[in-house]
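Hypothesis: this fold can be encoded by more than one sequence.
Test: take the structure tokens below, design a sequence, compare later.
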């Protein structure tokens, strides 16, 4: 099939891939001046007597999400056209492959990187769930790696969840995914293969299967037929992942097992529970003994625990994760010096800092406190007013003034609201001290 020069307003550059129902092109949007992925549906598919209605419903579901899911770990849908002669979906172009190449015993990802990927999936799917959307087709082929090149680059890239065509909208008009229709039986929950009513816990189960496969290089259930697979999903328990991989902490066995519980009552009830236990696994000594960098999941959890970030959405918080710097600071380190230019502010994650001026102690900072923001927010005054010194080994998150200036409007607004709360709290403390004199 010849590659078209244009589909709608989009210039077509090359073919990216082809499936049974569609072909995906690399396109260019001359109005937005960006590369896009254009998924063109084969017209004969929608005219098929037996399955045309099903595929049309899937297409309409995906098209209805245009502009609705805006999250750093979800492929964004920009545009959709459904017509008799030509139907297509225009999506964010993600330069990379899927997780499928890392599902064999010889190509497994490092355990810490794998847990990082699954953590990001939990947060993205929680965001979708809060928007009233359950994916229903979570599998390695629908998790894309950003900036993938060779294997080393793939192992350090970010991820995005794609293909919401089988999604269920929580709007009272739920439809069901038949095993013989769409979806992949190997990743379906017991409720899904039985065609029961579904909620977000079906995605939790499916992500548990993906995690099992990424850990071991094999699916939890093996069968030569769909019927055999369905029987095992509903009646059998798979061997723990550690049976097939000795370099992983045993704590991950429990995480996978709970995500894949057959009964809803025993499975994770919320995405927060799932992501929290994953984050805890990063703190397992076996997993972090030789780790130098802070994983993104640990950063996200640490920021979410700080009161300053209570009003930040998950999307805002991921933005902060990306533009902040994280450091382990030794005792005695001068973090800010009186009189120096202030081009960043910071948060103390743990440990203790002292604030002093000209050798006179002004106070101490405890875990969770923000400091250095006055040099950022005061007009025309960008110098430090005191020394800040680490009294113990500490972890500090720093954010440059330039990063704050280039943050999204919503993120920047939350920071300035947080600064106001910090200043109001300090004034209240000062007034209380004055009143006690």
């Amino acid at each position: 099939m010849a590659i078209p020069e244009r589909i709608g307003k989009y210039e077509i550059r090359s073919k990216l891939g082809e499936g049974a129902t569609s072909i995906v092109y690399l396109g260019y949007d001359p109005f937005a001046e960006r590369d896009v992925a254009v998924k063109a549906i084969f017209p004969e598919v929608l005219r098929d007597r037996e399955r045309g209605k099903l595929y049309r419903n899937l297409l309409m579901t995906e098209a209805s999400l245009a502009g609705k899911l805006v999250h750093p770990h979800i492929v964004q849908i920009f545009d959709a056209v459904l017509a008799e002669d030509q139907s297509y979906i225009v999506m964010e172009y993600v330069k990379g492959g899927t997780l499928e190449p890392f599902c064999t015993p010889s190509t497994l990802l490092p355990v810490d990187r794998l847990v990082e990927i699954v953590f990001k999936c939990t947060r993205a799917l929680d965001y979708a769930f809060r928007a009233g959307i359950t994916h229903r087709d979570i599998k390695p082929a629908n998790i894309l790696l950003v900036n993938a090149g060779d294997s080393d680059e793939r192992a350090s890239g970010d991820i995005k969840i794609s293909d919401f065509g089988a999604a269920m909208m929580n709007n009272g008009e739920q439809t069901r995914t038949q095993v013989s229709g769409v979806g992949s039986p190997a990743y379906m929950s017991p409720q899904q293969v039985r065609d029961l009513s579904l909620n977000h816990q079906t995605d939790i189960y499916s992500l548990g299967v993906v995690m099992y496969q990424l850990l071991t290089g094999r699916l939890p259930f093996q069968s030569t037929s769909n019927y055999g697979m369905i029987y095992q999903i509903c009646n059998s328990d798979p061997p723990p992942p550690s049976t097939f991989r000795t370099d992983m902490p045993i704590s991950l066995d429990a995480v996978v097992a709970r995500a894949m519980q057959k009964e809803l009552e025993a499975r994770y009830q919320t995405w927060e529970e799932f992501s929290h236990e994953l984050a805890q696994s990063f703190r397992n000594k076996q997993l972090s003994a030789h780790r130098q960098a802070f994983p993104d999941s640990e950063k996200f959890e640490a920021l979410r625990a700080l009161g300053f970030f209570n009003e930040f959405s998950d999307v805002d918080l991921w933005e902060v994760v990306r533009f902040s710097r994280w450091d382990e600071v030794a005792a005695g380190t001068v973090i800010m010096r009186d009189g120096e230019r202030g081009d960043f502010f910071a948060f103390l994650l743990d440990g203790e800092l002292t604030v002093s001026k000209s050798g006179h102690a002004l106070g101490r900072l405890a875990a969770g406190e923000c400091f250095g923001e006055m040099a950022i927010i005061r007009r025309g005054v960008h110098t430090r007013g005191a020394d800040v010194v680490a009294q113990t080994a500490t972890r500090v998150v720093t954010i440059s003034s330039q990063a704050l200036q280039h943050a999204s409007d919503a993120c920047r607004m939350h920071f300035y609201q947080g600064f106001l709360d910090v200043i109001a709290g300090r004034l209240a403390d000062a007034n209380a001290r004055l009143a006690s004199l």
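Residues 355 and 388 are 5 Å apart (CA to CA). The chain has three domains: 6-92, 100-291, 308-435.
Hypothesis status: open.
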